[in-house]
Predict the structure of Terpene synthase.
Amino acid sequence: MSPASSTSRIAPTAIRIPDLVSHCTFELHIDRNHKLVSAESKKWLFNGDPDLDEAAFHGLEAGRLISMCYFNAGYPQLRVCTDFSNYLFHLDNLSDDMDDRGIDNVANVVMNTIHHPHTYRSPARLNRMTKDFYKRIMQTASPGTCRRFKETMKLYFQAIQQQALDRANGTIPDLESYITLRRDTSGCKPSWVLIEYAYHLNIPDEVMGHPIICGIGEATNDFVAWSNDIFSYDVEQSKDQTHNMIDVIMHEQGLGLQDAIDLVGDYCKRALDRFVHDRANLPSLGPAIDADVRVYVDGLTRWMVGSLHWSFETERYFGKVGKQIKATRLVNLRTKTVHAQVRV
């Protein structure tokens, strides 16, 4: 079935996703330890919590994602990054069913744990989980890396709290506001910090704050987040969720569904083009710093191509037909369902 056009009065039953795979030609690798790290991290996630909804993680393949994005990192670092990815998906699942006060309570536990990993105590399971992976980060990460991790996690919680307020009020933000918010709700910024941790980088603050390096990180964030909006749209629309760039564009510009999807695809391609342009114009800041910056930018490159291909391999967005959808780009839309509450 062909996707309905924007001029059709009949609600579309299918969409065609943009061809981002052909536009993203970076080389794809996967770490040889991906099966081991996946198994061990899943045990870590479910350890001691019989109430955690395992169905929410069925077919997620977070270990595969991380093994693509942090290819060839040391195994302890690969394991921490995988644990954090599973943890972040857990936070995302929780926040979908929380109001802003609930998210504020979660944020207090997580941020207090990160700031005081040796002394802060809470009965919340997130306290134990956060303490466990953050103590491992602290063992080898530079002070700047740790500081950036704290800062970006704070931004993440502020953003998902605003998202919860918008959801409660039925608010669809304008495109500019949404883009700013999405750069933090994506969880990309702390994931970029973990590139520094995974490869033992010690990049000075002034270098991380350089406009071109910031621009490269922002372009990567935009590509990963906006392409995720395309891939997750069907699941989200079935639950009446509207925190998605496609919904924002339809609401603001009066476009039909397929036209909005095509436009978001164009935005994704432009973000990738921005990345390529800025990467080609990286400044030279000295041999040692340049070497670390190259490793950091390579990590961002892996995130773009890794997250893109993983989106068709995980069951989170397309169930068991991801490979078929990758080939045809045709998605038959789900019917709307009542969203079950995630057990905290």
About this structure: The CA atoms of residues 81 and 194 lie 7 Å apart. The chain has 15 helices and two strands. Residues 1-8, 339-344 have pLDDT under 50 and may be disordered. The beta strands are 14-16, 330-332.
